[in-house]
Predict the structure.
Amino acid sequence: MAWITMNRPEVLNAWDIEMMDDLVRILSEVGEDEEVRAVVIIGAGRAFSAGGDIKMQKQALDQPLATKLERMILAQRITRYIANMEKPVIAAVNGVAVGAACDMALASDIRIASENASFGEVFVRRGLIPDMGGMFFLPRFVGIAKAKELIFSGDIIDAQEAERIGLVNKVVPADKLETETLELARRLASGPTKAIGLAKKVINKSLVADLETSLDYAIQAQTICYHTEDHAEATRAFLEKREPQFKGR
């Protein structure tokens, strides 16, 4: 299991170029590491992340469009690595998660929020739009009307409202967040992670596919599952009336 901590607590873990580079590098490494079978992303201190660093945004005012696009592409690589790695990614949202960080949480497979967490697609407050997947994921989680309301207004909502509308999976007491997240991550990491990864891949593809295409994706993925060690182990364990010991292979 990989535990990734955004660690700039003095600025609420706001992203500068260095942090974005680090996130891209680390997510790439854990995505390729076969020993890593689940990933957790959390923020140090009292915030998940305040999104883009205001100093970076100020510098961007005088930068050419090519530089802005380069930074946007870098940020989107974070979304792509989280969404496309074939292993579960949990966002443990311990505080404010706005802007790019809100998009990062949305790209994760599961969101567990502290009771102190808050969420906001605040891009509109800077005359911008969500550019890291928020406009793809948010309508699918909360519905088109609510997504438009949150994106158009830039409103920040608390953890309880986020849970009510389906933006997060679960809200827990602040002092239980790491424990509950670790418990879930360990449970997933000890499971048949090859099958979990393939299920994630098919679900993601099915978001933009019709039923027939989705069923075809499922056949392709299930064919792979049939040939995994985990499937054979699960079948033997069922017949022998014992708990399976999955290896992620």
